[in-house]
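Researcher: I'd like a structural prediction for the single chain below. Treat it as a standalone chain; there are no partners to consider.
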Amino acid sequence: MKQTPVAKVYEALTAIASNRVELNEDNAIVTSSDNSKKYQVKWRDNKYTSNDNATYWQGYPGYPVITVLMLQGKIEYSKKVLDYLKDINWHELNEQYKRNYDEAILSVLAKFDAEASEYIKECVEYIYKQLLNLDIEIVKKL
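Model: Treating it as a single chain, here is the predicted structure.
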């Protein structure tokens, strides 16, 4: 499995914080940060698929899959961090920074004081490490 860019964790947290997820028994619908697209995530056992570009074409867990993993309790996260990442239009930021995800993240973190910014980064790193160690398989179809 390819390694997910850490930016996808920020996007997943924003999806949860902004209530853009409809979680069902074996699938979920995750709405994009600009509300223009709806991604479907499906799973069976440890196999996950989604129609977002990262998951489908790049073969790594995109933010819709990460969102589902967190809501399923397979990845622990701090509910407090959600307060900082609500209603961020990552699509717009990624366009603005020409897909330089690190620059987009820095622009968001710059809005907070040093303590809050560090807290957010620590929470994201904790989630990211769990994601890397998770025993899941990304597939194109179930």
